[in-house]
Structure formats: C-alpha cells, structure tokens
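Thought: the user wants the 3D structure for the chain below. I'll pass the sequence to the structure tool as-is, report back what it returns, then summarize two notable features.
Action: structure_tool
Action Input:
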Amino acid sequence: MKESKKYEIDLTAKAAFHNHVDFCVGTGRMGLALQKEYQDQLRLVQEEIGFKHIRGHGLFTDDMAIYQEYEDENGKRCVEYNYTYLDLVMDSYVQLGLRPFLELGFMPDKLSSGEQTIFYWKGNTTPPKDYEAWCGLVRATLSHLMERYGEEEVVKWPIEVWNEPNLPGFWKGADMKEYFRLFGDTFRAVKALDKRFRVGGPAICGVQDELWIREFLNFCEGEDIPLDFVTRHHYTTEFPEPVGHYGYAELSNAEDGFCNLQSTRDIIDSFERYRGLEIHITEFNTSYIPNCPLHDTNQNAAYIAHQLSRLGDVNESYSYWTFGDIFEERGVPFTPFHGGFGLVANGCIPKPTFWTFKFYKDLDGECVLKSEDLVVLRTKEGGYQGIAWNAGRERTDRELALSLSLPVCGAGEYVLVTKTVDEQTCNPLRLWHDLGEPSSLSEGQKKLLRESARPLVSSSRLKASCEKLELVLEVKEFGVIYFELKPVETVSDRGYDYDRVMRR
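Observation:
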C-alpha cells in the first residue's frame, strides 16, 4: 500500500520546532561506567551524536562505596566518604564532554531505614534513617566534586532528587509525604552549599502523575521553595506480555502521550509562582522494560523520530533511556539483541534508533515545516535539511511518498544527499537473526553487524525550475530518511570529464 502526501512551502513559511535532542541521555547505574564496553559504547555515542549531559541511577548505592560508617575506639558511630570510584566515573564523563545530570539516589545500605531494594543490583529504596546524615552525604559529595572540577563548572550540573517516588518499588510505599520531606531537606541542603545549584523533582513516572505533580507544587509553594525545574518520565507502550527472558509490548497512541505531557505543563502553569518553569523529561523511550525486543527495531526508530519532532513543544529537555546496553536492572542479558534500552547494542553495534538521534542532532536552520511525518529546515546557505519517517503502531505494509516543493533563489543546481535507515538498508537485528541469533559474537560477526548498522547514503543533482525545487522522498515502512539539499557548483580539474568517465 502506497500513500502519497504533497507539501508546498513558500518563502514566508515558519513552523514551531524546538530541537533539544542533545541535552541529555540516560545511562545504567553509575558503577557500570567502570566497564570497558560501557566506555566504548559511550565514546561511540559521543563521537557520532554528542550529548551534553548524562543521567543515571546509583550515585549513592553501595557499589559506588561513597558512604561509609565505622565505630571508633569508644564505640561511637563515625561517618567517612570514599570517592575512589566516583572520581573514575566522573573523570570519564568529563573527558567525553559530558556534564552529569545528578540524580540523588539510591540509599546507602548503612544509611537506609529498611531493607527494600530494587533491581538485580539491589538499590535500596527506603528513606534515610537519619536525614541529617543524608544531607551531610549530599553536601560532602557536591563539595568534593566542586573541589575536583571547579565550583563554576559543577554548579552547572542539574540536580534531581530521587527517581520515580510515585512507584512503590522505587520509594517505599510510594509515600508522598515522606518524599516531600526528602525533597525539601535535600533542596535546602544543596542551596545552602551554593545557591547557584539548580535543583528539581519529583521524577515521577505514570501512576497518578497529575496528582503527584500538583501536590508536589503545593508542597513547594507552602514551604516557600524556589523550585528550579520539574522532572518527569515518558514511556509509550502498553503493559508488556512476559515470555521467557522477554516482554512483548505494543506501542500506545502517540497523541495520548503528548496530551499527558501537556497536562504537566498545564498544572505547572496554574501556579502563578511556577508558571513557565522548565520541564525536563529525565527518562523516555517506547517501552519501560529493558528486555523489550521493540527497542532493537526500525519500528522503534521511526516512532522515536515522531516523538523527537514534538517533545520540545512543552519540555526543555528529554533524555533517552539509555545510550547503551550495558545495563543490569533484570540481570546480565543473555544475547547482544535482547531488547535493551540502549541506542547501542553490546558489541558497539548501533541500533536504528541511534541514527534517529544522529539525524536530529545534525539539523541546523529555521524550521519551515513540521508535520506528522516530516520536519524541514531552511539553512543559512539557502538550502534545506530535514527528516522524514514512516511510523506505525503495527505493521501495515504502508509505503510513504512525500512530495516537497521548496522555494530557492535562482535557477542553479543543487545536490541532494539522503541517509536512509529502514528494514532493508540498516537493520542489524535482521542480520543477527539470519546468522542464527548467536548469543556470543565472534569478532568477525561484530564487524559484520557494525557494517550492516550504517545508513545507506545516496546523492543526486536537482535543477531549480521557476525558483522551485521538486523532490520526492520514498519512505518504506518504519523507515527514517535524513536529507540535505545544498546549492552546488562543479569546478572540474583541467581535463577531467565526469560524463566521459562514466561513458555516457
């Protein structure tokens, strides 16, 4: 089935498009940054895309070993801090041009008020037994970072208090009152250290999100807290069906998700004090489980392309969860393609969604068109850039032909460069399946899969007619195409004849 759409753009065209794709990306817990494969994947992401911030769990969990207690010779409990691993992790981020978006959590075991934990790595999710000691830990850690990397630098690192306290697994009993205490005490402790720090919350996800946002702002207003930003999460699949090691989830209606995001904006703007306050989506993806095969597919890449065109409408940033597949919430995965959250599969193999982010990062210009399947920008050089996608919640065999009529100055020649990611051109998952779905990849298989995981680059020459350029983008189902259109003038070397070379 082929569907055709036509878009006529004039010189006065403008469209609202806020592209904050590179502000932040998610990571598995911080302790994983000590692994080589983690660093290799992060380096690849930074070389090709280049994010500004990175956010993940586990800053204060026991594998980072920051919080320590001991008894002195008189039996008195004493506290000390160990920054050995913290320095290694933060050094690696800074060297790759990343600023942490610091999520404060989870609870060190010796500071916890209970034994409730979450995930394979047992992050403690109970309140502190001693709020003064918790605030001391926060202040001491930030002070250490300021001493190591400079005050002027570290105060630019956003700070988020906890993760998803509206879910009982992440915060004991989803106790709203107790979380508000944690937030208030932590906010004041951070601001007392340096008022330039920007602190936000409540990092909620899904359940009773409107109630939590409203009550959080009521609390902040009542406590006279000059909140810097609001954080929340955004996932877009239905409940998964568990089968073996995997969870199969259907995509939800994208419009429902955008409406839910708008509700957060509306609630914040209903408070005079907080009207217009920044919203940071500190996690988003399609599925919220790290074993959903959808994440590895071209379908995911196309759906996310649509998301990225609109997430900036009411949000200051939106952090994809996560950059890579070194990730252990449900244990160590069995295979390289296991439905992990990451943009990169283990073996440093970019997934199709990786290129969706790369394409958005490369956009630079003034937006002249934004539709449900296309964004187009006019560049300073008089050309155009854009991204087209063919997204769908289920397979329908729909192919999309997008016809564009673009105004240009003069009647010269233009070069059209396209980069295509679809199931035929850039699909390492299919190759892995055809290879027999090996759980342990050889070096040769890794190399082959990386070769299959790159976009198809094509080019052609177009001539303007009546100061218009006409082009058609053929987007296969679940495909994503990046295109650039630039004025070009051929200046051949003496004696070189391309047509003769090609025997035309």
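Final Answer: Structure generated. The CA atoms of residues 1 and 397 lie 6 Å apart. Residues 131-149 form the longest helix (19 residues).
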